[in-house]
Amino acid sequence: MPIETTFNSAIEFNCGLKMKNRFMLAPLTNQQSHEDGRLSNDEFNWLTMRAKGGFGLVMTCASHVQEIGKGFSGQLGIFSDDLIEGHQRLAQEIKSHGSLAVAQLHHAGMRSPFEVIKKKAVCPSEIEKYNARALSLEEIHQLREDFIAAAIRAKKSGYDGVEVHGAHGYILTQFLSSKINKRTDSYGGSLENRSRLLFKIVEGIRHACGDEFLLGVRLSPERFGMKLSEITIVSQQLIDSGNIDFLDLSLWDCFKKAEAYPEHQLSLLEHLLQLDFKTVKLTVAGNIRNGEDVQNVLNTGVDFVTIGRSGILHHDFPKKVIANANFKPIQNPVSKAYLKQEGLSEKFIHYMRRWEGFVQ
After folding, report:
1. 11 forms bridges with which residues in the sheet?
2. Which domains are seen in the chain, by residue range?
3. How far apart are CA 254 and CA 355, in angstroms?
4. Bridge-partner residues for 283, per DSSP?
5. pLDDT tens sequence across 215-240
6. DSSP letters spanning 101-143
7. What's the distance, CA 88 to chain centroid?
């Protein structure tokens, strides 16, 4: 099979939806929307430009499901029906270019900055370092309901599906982590208890949104208090539940050794590929920069790649790689004018200056 066919071949998910190629836009923090959670023209332009550029699946940046779960300034929210209008506009335009439109559902938990939410952040347990208080049992039940309500809102907005953000140290990671979660009730202690909220959210979304709604979960197998051995168990249970269409694993580097087994011959990705994925699709993110990287990851058996950095540098990265399997992106640092041409606003460019050597 020629390389182009692999990159450009469609994927059919369990829910029946088809993705036209093997490229997903990573859900990227960009700080471009309004402070009340409404979609801005800047965020609309940034995301729809990637749909025009050939991404088979375009995912919003983390959209918070509760006001108290806001993780950064300029975050696109999905916590209120008042926000549906912006999401409808966005989903419709993404889909008009043949891309699947997916909203990422998020809650920052203890990582909600005081200066952003103007109150104490919430967490499974009290964490003094983050000025975070412990959630009550009633609040945990409400959090589950608010994740489900946000998914229903996404469906009403016309999105093809949602991804539950259980990675990167945000609230569901905080529940999963034995280092952070010190609860003594049914949401703390054993891995079964620590993963309970995640499974209840996923079950609830599937029940509320139906079998034809695309549903994925993002997890971090390392860092943020995660243990690879536990995340592999949770991943297999999510697959076996029959409730998810895809698993999105954020590896930071798809080619690195597993931190838990540095002496092992297998890479982190190869450890994870030992899972029995059945008909659930797998996507991974982490240091997939050019055409050769895309091919190497797909060759391992991963179904589709999640592109961050190169999707910022080239709105049409998928088209470029499909046309030329050896495509390499422009080298950093790049000029502000170049990034504006690629659909980044002043705010997003300012945010990208945090990545050393990215912007001139």
Report:
1. 19
2. 3-323 (3.20.20.70), 330-360 (no CATH)
3. 19
4. 248, 304
5. 999 999 999 999 999 999 999 999 99
6. EEEEEE--GGGS-HHHHSS-EEESS-BGGGTEEEPPHHHHHHH
7. 20
